[in-house]
From TrEMBL:
Topology term for the membrane: Single-pass membrane protein
Organism this protein belongs to: Vecturithrix granuli
Similarity comment: Belongs to the TatA/E family.
Subunit architecture: Forms a complex with TatC.
Name assigned to this protein: Sec-independent protein translocase protein TatA
Keyword Transmembrane helix on entry: yes
Keyword terms, alphabetized: Cell membrane, Membrane, Protein transport, Translocation, Transmembrane, Transmembrane helix, Transport
Length: 61
């Protein structure tokens, strides 16, 4: 995974823990999860819009 080993991931996690604190980590994780979910939903909606407009162009030609 991106050339990052387990030691590096632990160090990154510890730095994040020091910066944000233990109480904020669940909130950050929840917000990140919601953001990813919304991004995926927006990408699917964009694909549907693109398919709809391309099919309309095909019928005009």
């Amino acid at each position: 995974m991106f050339g990052i080993g387990s030691t590096e991931l632990i160090i990154i996690f510890l730095i994040i823990l020091v910066i944000f604190g233990a109480k904020k980590l669940p909130e950050i994780g929840s917000g990140l999860g919601k953001g990813i979910t919304n991004f995926k939903k927006a990408m699917k909606d964009q694909d549907k819009i693109g398919e709809k407009s391309s099919s309309e162009e095909d019928t005009k030609a």
